[in-house]
Design a protein that fits this description.
The protein is mainly alpha-helical and 70 residues long. It has helices at residues 11-30, 44-52, 56-61.
Length: 70
């Protein structure tokens, strides 16, 4: 079972996820005539994981980009 509220996304990873998510969502609104416009909505995933500082796939595979606490 996955732990709740486990932060496993570091600050650089988080910033990149938020920027990528926002860029993809902007593409959704700017490319109004595109046949595959709906694919831009995949930007919701990195945006949400960046804002929550938690990635479910990182939890499953035991990964973390957060700095280690001493």
């Amino acid at each position: 079972m996955l732990k709740k509220n486990v932060k496993n996304v570091g600050s650089i990873d988080r910033a990149l996820r938020v920027l990528l998510g926002l860029a993809l969502l902007a593409g959704f609104f700017l490319d109004s005539d595109g046949a595959y416009r709906w694919l831009y909505l995949i930007g919701i995933v990195p945006l949400v994981t960046g804002l929550m500082s938690s990635c479910p796939l990182y939890s499953i595979f035991g990964l973390s980009t957060c700095p280690m606490k001493k």
